[in-house]
Each structure stands twice: as structure tokens, then as C-alpha cells.
Design goal:
Distance between the termini: 23 Å
CATH class: Alpha Beta
Largest sheet: 6 strands, parallel
Structural class: alpha/beta
Number of strands: 6
Helix content: 25-40%
CATH superfamily: Flavodoxin domain
């Protein structure tokens, strides 16, 4: 089995105060043999994105995971800016220029509210997958393969350390599975 190169793009404006994303990052940092970690806020504290460097980084990897906390039911602003500036016509889309075609792209998202709130009959009436639909459409538009999302819920209600550790281990398992050549996604 060949190993796939995985890029995890971490977008959190204050990773040091984070609960979930910081814990996920700590777990990933122990496993840099299988992942490249790229922190957008650390790389671009001034918001000035080096588009050429970002595009090169994407081309060097087979699988890309966008890791972020859900902000107002969407991505953090820097990740949206990154999409707008990096996934450009002539690079990510446009006749004959889909350089990310065939790559696998997924999301790892932390959500402040409970999982039950992300049900059609829940507090917000939409599932997490429904809220992530714009990312899925973007990924499919650039001819990449959308991977199932990985999530952790209930951050604002507090998560016991044992549950946090278990979730971080599940995240690492998710990443490890993606690194296997014959990984397949079930709908």
C-alpha cells in the first residue's frame, strides 16, 4: 500500500485559546510523518496570503483537510479569503486548468453547540452536512472529491478531558485512514 500525502490547513484565529482545534493540532504534531500541518493564521497574521505558495502547497499533496471551528455556521473569515484568493480561475477551475482535479478534500470542524442541535428537528433545523454544503459544492466544482466531514460538537458546553482525548484519537484515525492508498469514501 502506498501512502498519500496529506495537508491539513488549520484555520483558527486564536489557536492557543482553542479547546478542540488545539487538541487536534497537538495530536497531528505527533504524527508529522503522515501529515503536513499548515496554520493559516500563523502563516498570515496580516491576512496577506501568498497565493503562489499556497497553490504550490496544494499541488504537493494528494489529500487536503480544512480544519476549522464553525463561525456563524460557516468558515472563519481567513479561510473564506483563502478560498477566494487561492482557488482561482486558471488554477482550480476553468477549461483544462483544474489543477486540483482528482484530489481528495475534506473538512474537520469543531462546533460549539451540541450535535442534537444540528438536526432538522433540532434548535437550528439544519444538519452539519447541510451547513457545509457550500464547501462541498466548491470542492466538487473544482473537480476534487469531497470527503466525509469529521466533527466535534458541544465545545461551549464543556468537554471532559477523556472525551476530548477520545475525539482527538478518532481524528487521528480519520487522518490515518486517508493516508492509505486504497481508502474509499462511502456515501
Amino acid at each position: 500500500m502506498n501512502s498519500k500525502k496529506i495537508l491539513v490547513i488549520v484555520t483558527h484565529p486564536d489557536i492557543h485559546k482553542s479547546v478542540i482545534n488545539k487538541r487536534w493540532l497537538q495530536e497531528l504534531q505527533k504524527n508529522t510523518d503522515i501529515v503536513t500541518i499548515h496554520q493559516l493564521h500563523e502563516q498570515y497574521p496580516d491576512g496577506q496570503i501568498d497565493v503562489i505558495a499556497e497553490q504550490k502547497l496544494l499541488l504537493e499533496h494528494d489529500t487536503i483537510i480544512l480544519q476549522f471551528p464553525l463561525y456563524w455556521f460557516s468558515t472563519p473569515p481567513l479561510l473564506k479569503q483563502w478560498q477566494d484568493e487561492v482557488l482561482t480561475h486558471g488554477f482550480a477551475y476553468g477549461r483544462g486548468t483544474e489543477k486540483l482535479a482528482g484530489k481528495r478534500i475534506g473538512v474537520a470542524v469543531s462546533a460549539g453547540i451540541k450535535a442534537i442541535d444540528y438536526e432538522q428537528n433540532g434548535r437550528y433545523h439544519y444538519t452539519l452536512e447541510e451547513l457545509l454544503r457550500p464547501l462541498r459544492v466548491t470542492i466538487e466544482y473544482i473537480s476534487a472529491e469531497y470527503l466525509p466531514a469529521f466533527a466535534c460538537y458541544g465545545v461551549e458546553h464543556g468537554i471532559p478531558d477523556a472525551d476530548l482525548d477520545a475525539n482527538a484519537e478518532q481524528y487521528l484515525h480519520y487522518i490515518r485512514e486517508l493516508s492509505v492508498e486504497n481508502y474509499c469514501v462511502a456515501d
